[in-house]
UniProtKB/TrEMBL annotation:
<dbReference type="InterPro" id="IPR036388">
    <property type="entry name" value="WH-like_DNA-bd_sf"/>
</dbReference>
<dbReference type="InterPro" id="IPR011991">
    <property type="entry name" value="ArsR-like_HTH"/>
</dbReference>
<dbReference type="GO" id="GO:0003700">
    <property type="term" value="F:DNA-binding transcription factor activity"/>
</dbReference>
<dbReference type="InterPro" id="IPR036390">
    <property type="entry name" value="WH_DNA-bd_sf"/>
</dbReference>
<protein>
    <submittedName>
        <fullName>ArsR family transcriptional regulator</fullName>
    </submittedName>
</protein>
Amino acid sequence: MRDLPPPLLPLIRSNAVGELLARLYLHPEKEYSTTDLARRTGISQPTVSREADRFAAAGLTRERRHGNLRLIRANTDTIVAKPLTDLLAVTFGPAAVLPPLLQPVPGIEEAYIYGSWAARHANQPGPLPRDVDVLVVGAADEDELYGAARAAEHVLGREVNISRISPVSWNADQSDPFVTSLRSKPLHPLIQNRSTP
C-alpha cells in the first residue's frame, strides 16, 4: 500500500523524505551517517539508505566515505538549494530545528510539538500551520525556552510558542483538561525520557 503524500508538503513523497531533507538542508554545515540520520529522525536504516541513494542521484546531497561510514550532507551548490531550504523550513523544519535548540537547555525531561503542525505531520488534513506549539515537560528556565523559541522562529519563519508543564502535572491522573486534550491528539516527540541532571 502506497503512502499518501504528507499534508505538510504534498510535493514530497512521504514524511520520511521531508524529515530527512529538512535535517540535511536545515543543518547544511553538518555531515550525517545514515545510522545517525536514522537515530535522529526515527526512520529505519534501510529507508534512510534508500532515500540517500535517491538524493545523491538527484544531486541534492554530497557523500563521502570514512571507513565503513557513509557520510551525507546537503548539496548547497545546487540551484534548488535555497528554495528547497526555505520550503523545508516552513514545512518539516520544526522537527529538524527544535531538538538541537532544546537539547542544551537544562531541566527539560520531555518535549513535544502539538497542535496543527503535529496534526499535519500525523497526516491529518487541514491548512498549513501558521505557528508551532511546543510543550516542554520539566523545570527549564523560561528565559532559556524563550531564547530557543526566538532562535527557531528565525529559521522557521513562523511563530514558535513554548508552554512548560511540570513532570507531576504531565504524569498525573487525567483530571487536567489541558493534559487530557494534549494526550488525545497527535504529539511529535522532540526530546523523550531525559532525566533532569
